[in-house]
Amino acid sequence: MDIKDRVGQRLKALRKEKNMTQEKLSFESDVDKTYISEVENGKRNISMVNLEKLILTIGYSLKEFFDDESFL
To answer: What does the pLDDT look like over 7-45, one tens digit per residue?
Structure first.
């Protein structure tokens, strides 16, 4: 599994833990819903700026995001 897939899966899992839809995340983070979908499905590279926006909007820190066995 490449890094795009791992980042996308982690983002999706954390978003779902917070019971947040892609639409709500898009609205609250000011990041396009289609972009979020493509990132979550490993089809698109995400910029560090957008990754930080999404992670913070969901309610996690960068440390918490990357502190996962899929990144070891």
So the answer is: 999 999 999 999 999 999 999 999 999 999 999 999 999
Long-range contacts of 20-29 (CB under 8 A, 24+ apart): 20/58, 25/54, 25/57, 25/58, 28/57, 29/53, 29/54, 29/57
CA 62 – CA 11 distance, rounded (Å): 11
Under 8 Å between Cβ of 53 and 31: yes
Instruction: Determine the pLDDT at residue 12.
Output: 98
If we measure between CA atoms, which residue out of 3, 72, 7 comes closest to residue 40?
A: 7
Is the distance from CB of 39 to CB of 29 less than 8 angstroms? no
